[in-house]
Amino acid sequence: MIYLRCGLYMLGLLIASYGISLTIKVQHLGLAPWDVLSVGLYEKLGLSIGTWTIIIGILLIGVSFILDKSYIKLGTFVNAFTVGSFVDLFLWIDIFPPTTHSWPDIFTILLGIVLLGIGGGIYNAAHLGAGPRDGFMLSMSDKSGLSIGKVRIITESSVVLLGLMLGGPVFIITFIFTFIQSPLFQFSYLKITRIVDHLSEKTEEKKLARPIG
């Protein structure tokens, strides 16, 4: 089962990364809060968008380690490095619909959000470790006593403000991103989790049914 979980984890990261890359290609419509920050840092300081995604991820892992290391697993580090690398790779290959700065771009960014939500649900269903941002918000919630929802609102609002100050792309999609992505994330997460749990039960049953000796 560990191979299945690893395969699902990497598949989810691949899908989510392509979704992020799609939204970045039509960033004039707005981006998710953390991507606003990555693009803003890229615009001001150089490097690449993926590199800033990795750097931010590592910093958040460091904070989470100090607050509550229980949320940090091997998959957390894999997530931090893989997503940024995949985003840079996809942006370099440039296998996206053309940017038109008109209504077709809406479909492009919606597709990106859908893929990000589904991909996030898939890799989280593998249960190999929360992503750096998720782990950070969970640990902040535990330490502050605030609900995860409140921590997310405070954190992402602060990130958007900082990204905006750096020149990151903030527009209407930035403010509705979570409302579109979260239901898709939940659906795919629950669906894949049920499938993985069912396969795990079948595997255990086969092990118990094997004759001894």
How would you describe the overall organization of this protein?
The chain has 213 residues and is mainly alpha-helical. The protein has helices at residues 2-25, 33-45, 49-67, 74-93, 104-125, 132-144, 148-165, 172-209. Helix 2 (33-45) packs parallel to helix 7 (148-165), helix 3 (49-67) packs antiparallel against helix 4 (74-93) and helix 6 (132-144) packs across helix 7. It starts with a helix and ends with a helix.
* Percent in helix: over 70%
User: What portion of residues belong to β-strands?
Assistant: under 5%
How many individual helices? Answer: 8
Look at the helices and sheets and give the structural class: mainly alpha
Total number of strands:
0
Give the overall shape.
globular
Spans where pLDDT lies below 50 across 5 or more residues:
none
> Nearest-angstrom radius of gyration?
18 Å
Alpha-carbon distance between the two ends? 24 Å
Please summarize the sheet with the most strands.
none
> Averaging pLDDT over every residue, what do you get?
86
**Could you give the order of the helices and strands?**
HHHHHHHH
Write a brief caption for the model.
This protein is an all-alpha fold and 213 residues long. It has helices at residues 2-25, 33-45, 49-67, 74-93, 104-125, 132-144, 148-165, 172-209.
